[in-house]
Design goal:
Length: about 130
Protein backbone atom coordinates (compact mmCIF):
# COMPACT_ATOMS: atom_id res chain seq x y z
CA UNK A 1 0.00 0.00 0.00
CA UNK A 2 2.66 2.45 0.96
CA UNK A 3 4.89 2.01 -2.07
CA UNK A 4 4.60 5.67 -3.16
CA UNK A 5 5.92 7.01 0.11
CA UNK A 6 7.24 10.46 0.77
CA UNK A 7 10.47 11.83 2.05
CA UNK A 8 9.64 14.81 4.21
CA UNK A 9 11.50 17.65 5.77
CA UNK A 10 9.85 19.78 8.40
CA UNK A 11 10.41 23.50 8.44
CA UNK A 12 10.49 24.01 12.20
CA UNK A 13 9.80 27.72 11.96
CA UNK A 14 6.61 27.46 9.89
CA UNK A 15 5.59 23.88 10.74
CA UNK A 16 5.09 23.11 7.05
CA UNK A 17 6.19 19.84 5.58
CA UNK A 18 8.07 19.77 2.31
CA UNK A 19 7.31 16.47 0.59
CA UNK A 20 8.70 14.80 -2.50
CA UNK A 21 7.81 11.43 -3.95
CA UNK A 22 10.61 8.94 -3.48
CA UNK A 23 11.53 5.76 -5.27
CA UNK A 24 10.63 2.29 -4.04
CA UNK A 25 14.26 1.64 -3.04
CA UNK A 26 14.41 4.89 -1.09
CA UNK A 27 11.09 4.00 0.56
CA UNK A 28 12.37 0.55 1.57
CA UNK A 29 15.50 2.17 2.98
CA UNK A 30 13.40 4.71 4.88
CA UNK A 31 11.18 2.01 6.36
CA UNK A 32 14.12 -0.21 7.32
CA UNK A 33 15.71 2.69 9.21
CA UNK A 34 12.57 3.45 11.24
CA UNK A 35 12.40 2.66 14.89
CA UNK A 36 10.12 -0.40 15.10
CA UNK A 37 8.26 1.12 18.08
CA UNK A 38 7.34 4.18 16.01
CA UNK A 39 6.00 1.96 13.21
CA UNK A 40 4.00 -0.08 15.72
CA UNK A 41 2.59 3.09 17.30
CA UNK A 42 1.56 4.50 13.91
CA UNK A 43 -0.01 1.22 12.86
CA UNK A 44 -1.93 0.99 16.14
CA UNK A 45 -3.23 4.56 15.78
CA UNK A 46 -4.25 4.08 12.15
CA UNK A 47 -5.32 0.42 12.20
CA UNK A 48 -8.83 1.06 10.85
CA UNK A 49 -7.52 3.32 8.09
CA UNK A 50 -4.86 0.81 7.06
CA UNK A 51 -7.40 -2.03 6.99
CA UNK A 52 -9.77 0.10 4.90
CA UNK A 53 -6.98 0.84 2.40
CA UNK A 54 -6.12 -2.84 2.26
CA UNK A 55 -9.72 -3.63 1.17
CA UNK A 56 -9.16 -1.74 -2.08
CA UNK A 57 -7.43 -4.61 -3.93
CA UNK A 58 -10.26 -7.04 -3.23
CA UNK A 59 -12.92 -4.42 -3.93
CA UNK A 60 -11.63 -3.76 -7.45
CA UNK A 61 -11.74 -7.44 -8.33
CA UNK A 62 -15.24 -8.03 -6.96
CA UNK A 63 -16.60 -4.78 -8.38
CA UNK A 64 -15.35 -5.63 -11.86
CA UNK A 65 -16.46 -9.26 -11.65
CA UNK A 66 -19.96 -8.35 -10.43
CA UNK A 67 -20.18 -5.17 -12.55
CA UNK A 68 -21.09 -3.11 -9.51
CA UNK A 69 -19.26 0.19 -9.80
CA UNK A 70 -21.35 1.71 -7.03
CA UNK A 71 -19.34 -0.34 -4.51
CA UNK A 72 -16.29 1.76 -5.38
CA UNK A 73 -18.27 4.95 -4.75
CA UNK A 74 -19.33 3.63 -1.35
CA UNK A 75 -15.74 2.60 -0.63
CA UNK A 76 -14.47 6.11 -1.41
CA UNK A 77 -16.95 7.57 1.09
CA UNK A 78 -15.97 5.04 3.76
CA UNK A 79 -12.26 5.56 3.13
CA UNK A 80 -12.61 9.34 3.38
CA UNK A 81 -14.59 8.98 6.62
CA UNK A 82 -11.93 6.69 8.08
CA UNK A 83 -9.18 9.14 7.12
CA UNK A 84 -11.16 12.00 8.64
CA UNK A 85 -11.43 10.08 11.93
CA UNK A 86 -7.70 9.36 11.92
CA UNK A 87 -6.76 12.93 11.05
CA UNK A 88 -9.03 14.41 13.74
CA UNK A 89 -7.70 12.13 16.46
CA UNK A 90 -3.99 12.13 15.57
CA UNK A 91 -1.58 15.01 15.30
CA UNK A 92 0.46 14.39 12.15
CA UNK A 93 3.26 16.90 12.54
CA UNK A 94 4.91 16.46 15.92
CA UNK A 95 8.22 17.24 17.60
CA UNK A 96 9.28 13.63 16.90
CA UNK A 97 10.55 13.72 13.31
CA UNK A 98 10.48 9.92 12.91
CA UNK A 99 6.87 9.71 14.08
CA UNK A 100 5.95 12.56 11.74
CA UNK A 101 7.61 10.74 8.82
CA UNK A 102 5.66 7.56 9.58
CA UNK A 103 2.38 9.47 9.68
CA UNK A 104 3.17 11.35 6.47
CA UNK A 105 3.93 8.07 4.72
CA UNK A 106 0.54 6.79 5.84
CA UNK A 107 -1.14 9.94 4.49
CA UNK A 108 0.65 9.54 1.15
CA UNK A 109 -0.56 5.94 0.99
CA UNK A 110 -4.13 7.13 1.65
CA UNK A 111 -3.77 9.79 -1.03
CA UNK A 112 -2.61 7.16 -3.56
CA UNK A 113 -5.46 4.76 -2.80
CA UNK A 114 -8.05 7.54 -2.92
CA UNK A 115 -6.68 8.90 -6.21
CA UNK A 116 -6.75 5.43 -7.78
CA UNK A 117 -10.31 4.79 -6.60
CA UNK A 118 -11.47 8.13 -7.95
CA UNK A 119 -9.68 7.51 -11.25
CA UNK A 120 -11.55 4.21 -11.68
CA UNK A 121 -14.90 5.99 -11.39
CA UNK A 122 -13.68 8.89 -13.59
CA UNK A 123 -13.71 11.53 -10.89
CA UNK A 124 -10.98 14.14 -10.74
CA UNK A 125 -9.89 15.49 -7.39
CA UNK A 126 -8.19 18.78 -6.71
CA UNK A 127 -4.72 18.82 -5.12
CA UNK A 128 -5.90 21.47 -2.67
CA UNK A 129 -9.20 22.77 -1.38
Amino acid sequence: IMRNAINDRIDTQTGKNICAVISKDEYNNLISNFDKNILKQTIKEARKLILKMEEFKHLIVTSARDRQVYTICRYVQDLAAEFHSFYNSTRVITEDIELTKARLILIEAFKTVLANALKIISVTAPEQM
